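Forum: Protein Structure Q&A
Topic: Joint prediction for protein chains with partners

I've read a bunch of threads here and the consensus seems to be that you should model interacting components together rather than docking separate models afterwards. I'd like to see that in practice. Below is the full input, 578 residues plus whatever partners are listed. Could one of the regulars post the assembled result?
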Amino acid sequence: MIRQVSIFMENHEGRLNKMLKILAENDINIRSLNIAETMDYGIIRLILQETEKGIEVLKKNNIRCTLTSVLAAEVPDQPGGLSNLVDALTQAKINIVYAYSFLPKKTDNAIIIMRVDDEVQQKAIETLEKISTVNLLDAETLLMK
Amino acid sequence: MYWNKSCECMPREKLQELQLERLKEMVNRIYHDVPFYRNKFQEAGLVPEDVQELSDLQKLPFTTKVDLRDNYPYGLFAVPLEKIVRIHASSGTTGKPTVVGYTRKDITIWAEIMARSLVAAGADSHSVVQNAYGYGLFTGGLGVHYGAEMLGASIIPISGGNTDKQIMIMKDFGTTVLTCTPSYAIYLGDALKKKGIDPESLKLKVGVFGAEPWSDSMRKEIEKKLKIKAHDIYGLSEIMGPSVAIECEAQDGLHIWEDHFIPEIIDPVTLKVLPYGEQGELVITTITKEGIPLLRYQTHDITSINPEPCGCGRTHLRINRLQGRTDDMLIIRGVNVFPTQIESVLLELGEVEPHYQLIVRREGSLDTLEIKVELSEEMFSDKISNLEKLEKRIALRIHSTIGINAKIALVEPGSLPRAEGGKSQRVLDLRKI
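Posted by a regular:
Agreed with the consensus. Here's the joint model:
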């Protein structure tokens, strides 16, 4: 299971900049980022190299953030790679709340970050563990990729 | 034109004699029939016999909206429920409304002063009165209704809203008098224009507008849009409802019906009575009301008293048009809204220390309410759909509490301005009235 930092932010110029500067000043590297926006606000989802330190400095700066538990799966970077994974979850009637890509530096495979609802998370893990082309990653492994 | 000339034009000396007689009788009644007042008198070391002159009123204790809340719902009633024939309610400062009860005599007096008020504004028994105040717990609808009936005018109890129907009826039924909130009057004027109806082609002559603060520039706008004379009417449910005071044809201040109400202006901080002409908080004592007589009720409305004789011949004092409030009550589309009501909703939804801000705007002629709520840790979910659900849930609860559709905007923690003591500055009224 991967701990993702989720941040609430009003949809105005400068807000993202302020948050990114805080991370930069504290020497925290962002490994992956996803932004979901509405007209008035957005949610920024980050995988940080140093999660604890990241959440600490964000909170210290009064930025509304929380840890969310997400899954990271390594799949072959080829046609059908992601489809196999989603297909298995679909068969198990598990909905993906959101998903985004993680850019690995040390592998040719693709890595996908996804969130499923908490109550089906265990079932999702069990489902994916059965698929030979999907490799579920723990935090330590993910951040070394 | 007068409805009750002998009362409305009573020489001041005689009027004050009548006030003193009624005040003594009222003080006696509340002392004996309302434990709340007896306690207050005893705490202050007072007995009813201490009232020998009108100026003795200044020695007596005040009544506040908090007293009404603490004695919710019927604690300040001076008669058993059996004698109460009607109950109205308005917004309280928290979840519970402010409740008032009327005896049959109260209803008759209310109708009488409403009839006086309508006549002072130019109505008569030939008038066709389109009453677009809301009917219900709000005193506006039924208050005008009974007065217009007593006057013998033809009342159309259309209630608020449904603008197309309002205009159809105004045209087809030959409405001559319109009663509603001033902002709705502007809205109707704009709607007429959009439909290409020339207000000159209507029979509309007079408007009686209240339940909301409005300015002279709004009056000009309404008079131009509807081609009428627009009169301000003042009232509050705690005291009676609309028709506590009315603007006569002079349109220069509102005559307060002094044979039923004694007005005072106090310094809202020191609570000392201010001389005529000085601006302060309006305090009203009801001297004839049976159901819920109130002694020196603090209205929180800011105005001043004009003692000069009026050209219309009425001898009753005039209060100037309202200048604002001493508390943070907002009036939005005729509805009283207290920030604390919003706070109660947020607390109910599990907020521990809600930070929020009410922003009122006038868009076109309608007031809108936006509520900014700082997103707390407990509220935060990283699913957009959850945040949207949260906004809807807040909006729904707000609507069921104050009856107004508010736009809810979730904002970042710490983004709302803080007043001293760390509490958010809770109200931003951007209306230009």
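Chain B touches chain A at residues 375-377, 380, 382-384, 387-388, 409-415 (CB under 8 Å).
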